[in-house]
Amino acid sequence: MVKLRLKRCGRKQRAVYRIVAIDVRSRREGKDLRKVGFYDPMKNQTYLNVPLILYFLEKGAQPTGTVQNLLKKAEVFKELPSNQMKFN
């Protein structure tokens, strides 16, 4: 099963995160399938590759709670067909 989750990057006390599609069994810093976005909590910046995110969501990828909140804030779920909305 594939999940969309955050992968920590950056230096100590200055974390930035990549939003990646990754296998559930992989650890946080493990090998990802694709990089689909970027999130900087210090500057509150978000970059999302929306077509790629929609592709993974349509194939059944489940976003984690934090990634789901970021996607809701960016209104990505409005672009999904209504029958694809199977998240919490």
UniProtKB/TrEMBL annotation:
Primary location: plastid
Example GO biological process: mitochondrial translation
Domain of life: Eukaryota
A cellular-component GO term for this protein: mitochondrion
Record PROSITE patterns: RIBOSOMAL_S16 (PS00732)
Family annotation (SUPFAM superfamilies): Ribosomal protein S16
GO molecular function, one term: structural constituent of ribosome
A Pfam family annotated for this UniProt entry: Ribosomal_S16
Segments passing through the bilayer: none
Similarity-based family: Belongs to the bacterial ribosomal protein bS16 family.
Protein name, UniProt field: Small ribosomal subunit protein bS16c
